[in-house]
Specification:
The complex is a heterodimer.
Chain A lengths: L1 E5 L5 H25 L4 H13 L2 H26 L7 H16 L7 H30 L3 H21 L34 H18 L1 H11 L1 H6 L4 H28 L10 H11 L4 H25 L5 H21 E5 L3
Antiparallel strand pairs in A: 1-2
Helix pairs in contact in A: 1-13, 2-3, 2-12, 3-7, 3-10, 3-11, 3-12, 4-5, 4-6, 4-10, 4-11, 5-6, 5-10, 7-8, 7-10, 7-12, 8-10, 11-12, 12-13
Chain B lengths: L7 E10 L2 E11 L4 E5 L6 H8 L7 E7 L5 E3 L5 H6 L2 E4 L11 H6 L12 H15 L14 H14 L4 E5 L7 H16 L3 E6 L2 H7 L2 E6 L2 E7 L5 H9 L16 E10 L8 E9 L2 E6 L6 H9 L6 E6 L2 E2 L5 H6 L2 E4 L3 H5 L6 H6 L9 E2 L2 E2 L1 H14 L16 H13 L5 E5 L7 H17 L2 E6 L2 H7 L2 E6 L2 E6 L6 H8 L4 H4 L1
Helix pairs in contact in B: 8-17, 14-15
The chains are: A mainly alpha, B alpha/beta.
Chain lengths: 352, 513
């Protein structure tokens, strides 16, 4: 008979070792389809690593790709800590991008010192307000936020498409459904010449540290953790559960909204309905890989971005499909979840 | 009836859990066709005894013997549920042990056949289950999934499961706790029918009325000892109540104190609940400083609603509530904490602590927003750590340290942690809801000492307890709760337990005395 026994406590080193072990396990598992595709496993991985981090440009591409993932990863990490299952980061990202374009593509003209913060605040606010609805529905009526946030993603995307075909369509856009470009004053500054790296990365890193401080050092974070771990006891002890949930929803939605601002005002310059290749959903994977740790989110986001950028480059060199990237990410997630499970439980074999 | 050859005999069963003696030299005999009620208050040792019989626990002393085929008594292998089952002992636990995603029939058959033969033997199994259903009167849809069944039906499946294994002794642990009165009547009829066919039944309960209704013989347990055994036909309600709760008045450990100003006044409060019996109806309660008011009652009679009201978790639908003479404006736990109410929850694991957070965080949680524990929204970890260290020291919380997760604590230490959290603020009113349930004797004494010390310091205390000993030992006044209504019984001096016991069963003050 196989029995699972909960461990009394999980030491920190074991958790780190489990994550590292999970990464190795994922790479070993993915080696199988690579070998089946007839390519040298080590060559493929070397090409991936080189494509992701081998040159300054490659690394800058990886970090550019990691920027929205850090923000959506933080959005998921904060919400999941409170057991608020925000699956709607994708929609919140688009809402943030839409707000950024609405404010930053010429409607207001002011110097960058005003415009950049304005665009950021508008985007964060849009994402936050979009998440407020599902949170209130959950608190008031017990509506499952997994369903409401997930479905809102499609609503928002359709709304964006409607706006891009209608009132926000760029008259100079040769008929393409895209918004007017974000003005120079409202654009996020570039970080490095001849790369696509933009200030969104700095914002993401600062916010990751900020969220870490919030969760570990501040009363709000304390209350978020308390509500997430045991809402009944938190309520009994006087923690304002409803207010905390609303706060978490606003923070989470705001972070996802900022991801959209970065993509539109830092990278692309204008809004299209294919702005995000699923950064919102990938943020959930990032958060889970990071074990909901805000600093871990940075690492996990760079890892996932590196896998995608590296796989593209490997694919060009070897002809192995770049869907391999999805496989690596999926395997990593499964291995990390399994690793987390195995650190929390001991497996005992017993005859009986 | 005891002169018939017994099917089961327990001799001198003793079981200790640390310093607590749960069973102390208990003898019990059971003849075929007999329904014996095991009566006692919570914690009297009823369930422990039956768990020993069924092999969940091993007794420290004593022997369990079961009749074999030839009618001779044989020792039952201790600590083995399989042996108990093989010897024909079946148990229906308070918490059902059914697989909810299987049908009733599948649950009944589960474990009796090798997995590979299960489907082949199904028709046979169905025929046997149907026959048992018919004979016993346990009507239930055998093909419905268990999660579709009502609680009463699930219980019938549990009983059928035992009968299917051809048990000769059926143990039912508090079977009526989950049943409506009508369902309970139905169950009694079934039990009588089964007994008439030769089954021996042990019926565990703390409800006097049903024990009198269904049993042939009553064995009364109190504090781990069998304090009496009598034929039901010759039993008198009052005598059993006295046996159950104990005649001797526990020495009052209270120093006489003059009560002060009222700290809690509830006037005609209604508090809703899912079921009318658990709601509060027109409750009026007055608690003064330096006074412990004990709320006696059988579980599920509105205690939870009263506790929620005093804890700030529920607002009254009707009626008024004043704390320290001031009407309550906000029914909110934090407002109550700030008004000086210390709240000890009934379910300390679920409502009392957050297991994943540290002991220090759990001690500080009610005060986390107070000045001194945070500055500009940043937690002062040095302050909460110092507070936790003081709590661990002063309340003797046995733990690895203030940074250990609270889930590592034992029940008694969780309670100490909660007391440290709520009592250190010098509360004016203390709500202690089942403060010693499940604690060992040492931890119980510690909780009592803390409550009495708080009373001397000037706090008013509402003590909700199902343990009459505790109520009598600590209370300055006793109030009985029954079906959501509060009735003043008066000071414990000059009040006897039988009277309170009858009031708990719903009799008025006059008619009980």
């Amino acid at each position: 008979m196989i029995r699972l026994e909960a461990r009394q406590s999980v030491p920190g080193w074991l958790r780190l070792a489990a994550t590292a072990g999970a990464g190795v396990a994922a790479l070993v598992l993915v080696a199988i389809p690579i070998a089946v595709a007839g390519v040298g496993v080590f060559d493929a991985y070397a090409l991936m690593a080189k494509g992701a981090f081998g040159t300054v440009f490659a690394a800058s591409e990886t970090l550019t790709r990691a920027t929205p993932l850090i923000l959506t990863g933080l959005a998921a990490a904060v919400a999941f800590r409170a057991k608020l299952w925000n699956i709607g980061a994708e929609g919140q990202l688009y809402a943030g991008a839409l707000a950024a374009v609405a404010v930053g593509s010429g409607a207001i003209s002011a110097p960058p010192a005003v415009m950049v913060p304005l665009v950021l605040v508008a985007g964060a606010l849009a994402g936050a307000l979009l998440m407020l609805g599902p949170a209130l529905l959950k608190l008031r009526f017990g509506a499952d936020e997994v369903v409401t946030t997930l479905l809102l993603n499609f609503v928002v995307l359709l709304f964006v498409q409607m706006m891009l075909e209608g009132p926000m369509k760029d008259p100079m856009g040769l008929g393409w459904p895209q918004s007017m470009p974000v003005t120079d004053a409202a654009s996020l500054p570039k970080l490095m010449a001849r790369t696509r790296l933009h200030a969104g990365l700095i914002i993401g890193l600062v916010l990751a540290v900020g969220v870490a401080i919030l969760m570990r050092r501040m009363v709000w974070g304390f209350e978020i953790r308390a509500v997430g771990e045991n809402a009944a006891a938190a309520r009994y002890a006087g923690v304002p559960v409803t207010a905390t949930m609303v706060r978490v929803a606003l923070i989470s939605g705001g972070l996802a909204g900022l991801a959209g601002v970065g993509e539109v005002a830092g990278l692309k310059g204008y809004l299209t309905s294919d702005l995000s290749p699923g950064f919102g959903y990938a943020g959930i994977v990032v958060a889970m890989l990071a074990g909901l740790s805000p600093i871990g989110v940075i690492v996990a986001a760079i890892f996932i971005a590196g896998v995608f950028v590296g796989a593209d480059s490997m694919s060009r060199a070897t002809g192995v499909s770049n869907y391999l990237a999805d496989l690596v990410v999926a395997m990593s997630l499964l291995c990390v979840l399994l690793g987390g499970f195995l650190t929390r439980f001991r497996i005992r074999l017993r005859r009986g | 009836m005891t002169d018939r050859a017994p099917v089961l005999q327990l001799d001198g069963i003793t079981k200790r859990f640390g310093p607590l003696v749960a069973n102390d030299g208990i003898d019990l005999k059971l003849a075929p066709g007999e329904i014996v009620a095991l009566l006692g208050e919570n914690g009297a040792g009823k369930t422990t005894l039956m768990n020993i019989l069924f092999g969940h626990y091993t007794a420290d002393a004593g022997r369990v013997r079961v009749a074999d085929g030839a009618g001779g008594l044989r020792d039952l292998e201790p600590g083995s549920p399989a042996a108990a089952l093989a010897a024909g002992i079946g148990m229906v636990h308070q918490h059902f042990t059914l697989a909810e995603n299987l049908t009733g029939l599948e649950n009944i058959v589960l474990g009796t056949e090798p997995v590979l033969r299960f489907w082949g033997g199904r028709a046979e199994a169905r025929a046997k289950a149907a026959r048992l259903t018919r004979e016993s009167g346990l009507e239930v849809d055998l093909d419905a999934r268990v999660d579709q069944l009502a609680v009463g039906e699930r219980q019938r499946v549990e009983i059928l499961k035992a009968l299917y294994r051809d048990v000769r002794v059926l143990v039912l642990d508090e079977p009526t706790a989950v049943l409506t009165p009508q369902e309970a009547e139905g169950l009694f009829a079934v039990l009588r029918r089964l007994a008439a066919r030769g089954l021996a039944v042990v019926f565990i309960s703390h409800k006097l009325g049903e024990v009198l209704a269904v049993s042939h013989r009553i064995a009364v347990l109190r504090a781990g000892r069998k304090v009496g055994e009598l034929e039901t036909a010759r039993a008198d309600r009052r005598a059993i109540a006295d046996l159950m709760v104990g005649r001797e008045v526990a020495a009052s450990r209270r120093a006489p104190l003059e009560p002060g100003a009222p700290v809690l006044e509830i006037d005609g409060a209604d508090v809703a609940a899912s079921d009318a019996r658990r709601a509060l109806h027109g409750a009026t309660l007055r608690v003064r400083a330096r006074e412990i008011v004990g709320i006696a009652g059988v579980s599920g009679n509105g205690q939870a609603a009263l506790a929620a009201l005093i804890a700030g978790l529920a607002a009254p639908a009707r009626g008024e509530m004043r704390l320290n003479g001031r009407p309550v404006a906000r029914h909110d736990p934090r407002a109550f904490v700030e008004a000086g109410v210390a709240r000890v929850p009934e379910d300390r694991h679920h409502d009392g602590i957050i297991g994943a957070m540290t002991i220090a965080e759990n001690v500080a949680i009610e005060d986390i927003r107070a000045r001194g524990f945070q500055h500009w929204g940043f937690i002062d970890f040095a302050a909460i750590r110092a507070r936790a260290e003081a709590a661990i020291r002063d309340y003797d919380v046995r733990c690895p340290g203030p940074d250990a997760p609270a889930r590592l604590l034992s029940g008694g230490n969780i309670q100490k942690l909660i007391l440290a959290r709520v009592l250190e603020r010098d509360p004016r009113l203390i709500l202690a809801n089942q403060p010693t349930r499940g604690l060992d004797v040492g931890a119980q004494a510690e909780v009592h000492r803390r409550l009495l010390a708080a009373r001397e310091r000037g706090a008013g205390v509402v003590l909700i307890s199902e343990d009459l000993d505790e109520i009598f030992a600590l209370s300055d006044r006793i109030v009985v709760i029954h079906a959501g209504r509060l009735t003043e019984a008066g000071p414990p001096e000059g009040l006897d337990r039988g009277t309170v016991g009858l009031m708990m069963a719903g009799h008025g003050r006059e008619d009980a005395a």
